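User: ok so my PI wants both of these folded by tonight, can you help

Assistant: No problem, let's get them done. Here's the first:
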Amino acid sequence: MTAQLLATLKLRGARVAARKPVQSYAPDDINTDAARLAGASGEDVADICPAHRWYPLALAPPMAAHALGRGPVWMSEIISEVRWPADVDVGFVETAGGVRSPLACDGDSLELLRRLEVDQLLLVADAELGTINSVRLTLAAVGPIPTVVYLNRFDPNNELHELNRRWLIEQDKLTVITNVHALVVAIEDTAKPPGRHHSAARTPAPDCRAR
């Protein structure tokens, strides 16, 4: 999702950047999240995720680091390594897992977002059964951070998908988007001055693998 947004925004003239502060992945996965983000944004992959923050084991990053016999992952170190180009219009921070998934030994994805003072959270949720609960639990943790909900794999002809969308909008008063074009337009409309950034995160909804 983040790579697609970056590529589309870039084609439309925006100066984009992405950061994946830490990533863990299956050892045989040669197309990592950072690599996909680099391909979309045109940045060097090491600027997106420093090489020493790559953990080739499909566990939460601090757990992967421990299992691989590498040093502990500390939040303050991750924060200090996030640097932005001076001329960026829209920047994305992609987390690892849902907002309460461990990102470091002393903090989770939510801690990262708060300390980076992101302007907006993009919550990618599944459109299927269970998404209302997952979205509500995530937003309860997020608190006052402005959030846009994107229903992934939304099918307008699927009655359940449409009912979930309407409930989140009408009952929970959320901004809910269901197609990439509308999401790109919304991001362009709310883009802040250069140097500010959005965040892309995922809720642990059914069939929605956190990354």
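One down. Here's the second:
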Amino acid sequence: MTDTPETSIVFLLFPGITQLDFTAPAQALCRMPGAKLIGAAKSLDPIATDSGFSILPTHDFGSAPQADILCVPGGHGVTEALNDTATIDFIARQAAGAAWVTSVCTGAFLLGRAGLLEGKRATTHWGYTHLLPLVGAVHEAARVVEDGNVVTSGGVTSGLDFALTLIARLKGDAVAQAIQLAIEYDPAPPFAGGHPDRAPDAVTAGLKARVYDAAAERMEAALKV
């Protein structure tokens, strides 16, 4: 019997993170044989999420091991993180030695700020896809986009799809399917409206007016600094 090689999976953590961007892929990836998950932040202080609770990093930037898989989640805190030198330097440093560089939702813009999406096909949350050219990326309309060793995924719940896709690449379809079954990921949402392509126009327009028009403007301003 041979030992399973360890795979270090480093998640970037920052204030204002969307917790499901982190916890959804983490839930799948932690079940991959040999997986070791690391949550890295500027300090070991609790990280406030968008859900009213905090999470604890396992490492700070200085002590985090080299990632085999680097995962950068998103959230409204991305706008502040974009211009935090320590955060962007950590992403670039980890990406240089990682086999896979990945993002969920608006985490794509942090990859882009670190120079990792130039000329790459990529995706992000639907409310921000028009901003991808600002980081040199070409938007591809898909839930998960692979371009070389860079894997980006759409908004929030897409992180679970990305994780299962990557597990299949690394360990084979049967392992990914077993993990999908173990976590009973068998989505049957009450509405066929999880993307503007399918949601009622009035719902999309209302959500954009309440949240995403202003949020995209803040993201654009941060990207242009």
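The chain has a mean pLDDT of 97. The chain has one domain: 7-190. Good luck tonight!
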